[in-house]
Design goal:
This protein is mainly alpha-helical. Helices cover about 55% and strands about 0% of the residues. The protein is built from five helices and no strands. The N and C termini lie far apart (about 40 Å).
Length: about 140
């Protein structure tokens, strides 16, 4: 395997990780007036290097949330350091008519569960060529 093949595979792994976060997190709730195309374009348009850490066995729940927050803030066009609750309020307050609750960003707690599920999925993907999945993945109740 040449360097270009390795780099391409790393890019695909990173893209797959980012896409899992997007699809798992938005499975029922689409991004505020955007859709999945907007989410994918957001992933491809900017660098979110910590998203590639999702699926690493050593990541804690807090690390995972901190890795995902910059992507979701960018997706909902919120400034850095904005909490998900503030983003919900900001988007709710901008609408003249009452928006559908499903169209608002998830709360921090809900986002945490979405990211945990994406983390479990990527952890299992990364272990697909191993004899067994990581021991951390055996109790799926730890992942939302």
């Amino acid at each position: 395997m040449g360097w270009n093949d390795f780099g391409y595979q790393c890019y695909l792994c990173q893209l797959r990780t980012k896409t899992t976060v997007t699809w798992n997190a938005r499975l029922k709730w689409y991004p505020y007036e955007k859709g999945k195309i907007r989410a994918l374009n957001t992933l491809l348009s900017e660098e979110f290097p910590r998203l590639a850490d999702i699926g690493e066995v050593s990541m804690t729940k807090e690390d995972l949330l901190q890795a995902a927050l910059p992507f979701f803030r960018t997706l909902y066009q919120q400034p850095p350091e904005t909490s998900m609750e503030s983003a919900r309020f900001n988007l709710f307050a901008k609408k003249k008519n009452t928006p559908k609750i499903m169209a608002l960003p998830p709360t921090s707690d809900n986002l945490s569960y979405h990211v945990l599920r994406a983390h479990l999925q990527v952890m299992l993907w990364k272990a697909a060529d191993q004899l067994a999945p990581p021991s951390e993945s055996t109790d799926i109740t730890n992942f939302g």
